[in-house]
Amino acid sequence: MVSVLQESAPSYTMVKKWARLFQQGRESCEDDPRPGRPVTVVTEENVRKIEKLVLADRRIKLWQIAEVLQISKERVGEIIHEHMNTRKISARGVPKMLTPFDKQ
What is the superkingdom listed in this entry's lineage (predicted)? Predict the structure, then answer.
């Protein structure tokens, strides 16, 4: 494995652990679900609320949106960048693909 995968090869200890788990009857190669809160904040409703706030004031800050909606800044940033498909240009959120209306 080391000659093929080089630096990304798993350690001998990890391979032993996997072999033991499969000998005990494990059939899946996927990770088990981890404990903790699932991310349920990213909903269509929150995306619409954030979009409305950003369009009303393009200079609004992430912490201000997070405070209004009672969600974390990280989730607000994720919604703005990944779900609304915008990026920050000159302290203003601008869509990545501009329509002719947006260009005006």
Answer: Eukaryota
